[in-house]
Amino acid sequence: ECRTPDGKVFYFEEIDDASLCARDGEVFSRVSDQYLDSCCEGLKEWSPIPDTRFSIADVCYEVGSPSESNIGLCIKCGDGVCENHLTYNENPCNCPEDCAGKNKSMFQSIEEFCQSNDWKMSLSKACEEQEPIKGSPICELCAF
């Protein structure tokens, strides 16, 4: 007798390949036995923490060093639908093939971004002082 990460009892002869992978919206982890270690076929691994990206007018901007994460969510990216899922939202950064051109960016225009608290309260200062953000393309957007 064995148990799945969600506590269901199963016997080895009952296991199929689909039960050994995380489904849409489920957590995967390569470092914790609490979760399955990969997404099922057709799903994309997305690591939302830390998500160091902003989507502005369908363009994705990094605001720090992209980091490899060993834990994340499995998302159904590539089906042509930019989904708002129970556990995640697809956007132009985590699923550009489904979301570009569908008004799903965090900010719909550069002007909107430059007027936002995200820019005014934190990023503008970080762009002046902090590596690796300093000198990144997002820092040039509001330099008018």
Using DSSP, what is the number of strands?
7
Structural class: alpha+beta
* Arithmetic mean pLDDT: 84
Taking the sheet with the most strands, its summary is: 3 strands, antiparallel
Choose one word for the global shape: elongated
The number of distinct helices, counting runs of at least 4 residues, comes to 4
Q: Can you give the helix content as a percent range?
A: 10-25%
Number of domains: 1
Polypeptide structure, described:
The structure is a single chain. The protein has 144 residues and is an alpha+beta fold. It has one domain. It has four helices and seven strands. The strands form three sheets. Strands 3-7-4 form a three-stranded antiparallel β-sheet, with no helix packed on it. The radius of gyration is 19 Å and the shape is elongated. The chain starts with a strand and ends with a helix. 25% of the residues are buried. The model has no long low-confidence stretch (mean pLDDT 84).
List the helices and strands and how they pair.
Layout: E1 2-3, E2 9-10, E3 27-29, E4 44-46, E5 53-56, E6 59-62, E7 71-75, H1 96-99, H2 110-114, H3 117-129, H4 137-140
Antiparallel strand pairs: 1-2, 3-7, 4-7, 5-6
